[in-house]
Amino acid sequence: MNLKIIENLKTIDLKAIDKKSIKMLVGSILICLSAGIIGKLAVKEESLIWYDYLFKPALNPPNWLFQGIWIILYLLMGVSLYIVLKKDSFISKKLALIMFGSQIFLNALWAPVFFGLRSIAGGLATIILLWAAIYLTIYKFYKISIPASVLLIPSLFWVSYTIGLNLTFLIWNH
Predict the structure, then answer these.
(1) CATH of the domain at 112
(2) Total-model pTM
(3) Cα(81)–Cα(155) distance, rounded to whole angstroms?
(4) Which domain, by its residues, includes 57?
């Protein structure tokens, strides 16, 4: 299966990207980055002070690393979205794009719920839903484009890790 994924990644022809495609790629990336921007704008400074006083596990990354990883993941999501949008597929893309939209929405929602509402349990529920949405998006994208689905796997792994952190916060701070 790994060889199949590598062969599919090789089929992406970067020379064939025209101005319209570049705009679509940039737009796809901006859509995904907007989830992080919305989440960041919805969190007030006092919520971050609240977070500083929570008991945290040793594996809790520093804020700058956490934010940096999300930026990389949003870029990968944007490229994944672009690939699916460009793909001529016999399979309907409608449900795949609805799933993708739901995971972007849940990405944007997590920070305001966890930090803004200071709800560890609400954050955990949101991130579990996010994990399910990413999983279903990968499944739907796989039927359309293997490279597009592969680009979402790091998000699934990171959200799995974040679920563990969120659960630890709930146990240690409840």
Answers:
(1) 1.20.1260.100
(2) 0.87
(3) 13
(4) 18-173
